[in-house]
Amino acid sequence: MTSFIIDSHKTRNVAQSWKEEPAFCAFCRIIENGAKAYKVYENDNVIAILDILPIRRGHLLVIPKPHYQRLSDLPPHIASALGAAVSKVANALTQAINSTALNVVCNQEYAQAVPHVHYHIVPAPSLSAATSSMLSLPAPTSTEEMHRREYLGREELDDEEAQVITQAIRSKL
């Protein structure tokens, strides 16, 4: 994650969701099959799903099943299982999208929207004709403009596309 995004979160107040019980956690509901998600991978300790507001096609979240808010609080066996799953899922994703360029991020507290440890695995942008038009835009004049551009570039995950990419990734596991 870029430093301007991190800087914008340094002084934010702690969200009420950080003070609530895990029963209110969006990821815990997904893990318990109480909320819809496109599961790419699952074992006893970890689940990997498609992000519902992906930065790019194939954007994944790898989440430990036990509820921990902070990466620094994970017990060694869960941290190990999480690391192994990140590597396994990243490998399958690179094969499914035919590109090895990825960004792997785990935020702790600031810049972390859901108070449950998770890694983002985001395919790097391609400089195809579809994205090259972005290169002609003037540089953003503020942090707010950069955030706005990033947000406006994201679209809610389409069910049909989600099924296609989920199957493509699963087939490479």
Please write out the topology.
Elements: H1 3-9, H2 26-31, E1 39-42, E2 46-50, E3 60-64, H3 76-97, E4 102-105, E5 119-123, H4 129-135, H5 143-152, H6 159-170
Antiparallel strand pairs: 1-2, 2-3, 3-5, 4-5
Structure description:
The protein has 173 residues and is α+β, with helices and mostly antiparallel strands. It is 37% helix and 13% strand. The chain has helices spanning 3-9, 26-31, 76-97, 129-135, 143-152, 159-170; strands spanning 39-42, 46-50, 60-64, 102-105, 119-123.
Keywords:
173 residues; alpha+beta; five-stranded antiparallel β-sheet; 37% helix; 13% strand
Which of globular, elongated, flat, extended, rod-shaped describes the shape?
globular
What is the β-strand count? 5
Q: What topology, given as strand order, has the largest sheet?
A: 1-2-3-5-4
User: Could you report the average pLDDT, rounded to the nearest whole number?
Assistant: 85
In the predicted model, the low-confidence regions spanning at least 5 consecutive residues are: none
Written as H for each helix and E for each strand, in order along the chain, the element string is HHEEEHEEHHH
